[in-house]
Design goal:
Layout lengths: L9 E4 H4 L17 H11 L3 E5 H4 L6 H18 L5 E3 L18 H20 L4 E5 L4 E2 L7 H22 L4 E5 L8 E2 L4 H8 L8 E3 L3 H5 L5 H10 L6 E3 L18 H13 L6 E3 L9 H27 L1 H10 L15 H9 L4 H6 L4 H12 L4
Parallel strand pairs: 1-2, 1-10, 2-3, 3-4, 4-6, 6-8, 9-10
Antiparallel strand pairs: 5-7
Helix pairs in contact: 2-4, 2-11, 5-6, 9-10, 10-11
Amino acid sequence: MYEPKPEDKFTFGMWTVGNIGRDPFGEPVRPALTAVQIVEMLAEVGAWGVNFHDNDLIPIDATPAERDKIKKEFRQALDATGVVVPMATTNLFTDPAFRDGAFTANDPKVRAYALQKTMNAIDLGVEFGAKIYVFWGGREGTETDAGKDPVTAIKRSREAMNFLCEYVIDQGYDLKFALEAKPNEPRGDIYNATTGNMLAFIETLDHPQMVGVNPEVAHEQMAGLNFTHHVAQALEAGKLFHIDLNDQVPGRYDQDFRFGAVNIKSSFFLVKLLEDYGYDSSRHFDAHAYRSSNYDDVKEFARGCIRNYLILREKVAQFNSDSEIQALLAEINEDDGSMSGFSGAYSAQKAAALREHGFDRAALGRRGQPYERLDQLTVELLMGVR
């Protein structure tokens, strides 16, 4: 019942299923996979696409001959499996050159190198069919505000994004950018820490129509925020270009758990938002299997991400057709039309009429809402007893 289809657009990053299980306190527990092995694994579990950082595919110190060989084999694997590349990105955080950031680094040589590296990575992504290009500023931040002026950092970020937008236009690429926010880790504080920050920043760019957001479940929940609300803001603004699905215990380090593994109810409402509003871009799983897993279990992790989304999508359909739930929603949203004259765009006449209208404040205060009942029905639905 829960087998993925191409139109579901489920994708994984090469860095997700290919994660070797290293963490700050432990060495790798799984051998590194080649790009071809990763593509074959994703085809086996039913994924539609694979996404990559430039150095996930091609090592940063690869020779031209090695680069050509890797690209040829990767292309052959994509053609053989039917897996596509809808998104690409640049690694601007692993190499020691980016220890103080990339686009916001204080050293102008680092900032110039970051632009060069990103242009090359954009070319690579487009070569394999990417239509979305994600920017995560993992090192764009500080541990001490003594070292950087945050206003200067914002200006440097804007200059970089404007430059790269112009590069894409100049090359004639069919490509949009998606900015990914995160509050902290690996830096103590990362600039543009939330999706709301990113949405505000985008409107200051020279080509805001080219730039949207790539919100990630864990990144907002790390800060204790309601991820669904942030996705809704991006969606309503027409800026939800891409999304990273995983799961997270609020207030912890970036855990990147299997989607739906922790917060079932919040995952449900996220899927409901995406499905109800017809989100049609990639459903990208930016998550990692447990360090205790071998690669057979990594496949189960990937299948679990997909399966959980499809199960929750089925629950959304059940919620939307449940007569008792829908009756409660109709009661909650009841509108007798008496306020229609005050809604919509402002006019002086409307404002004057509203000022003169008499409201029964006590009656308004007496009206309760059956949210406890509605929430309990939702929980029962998710627990499989409805």
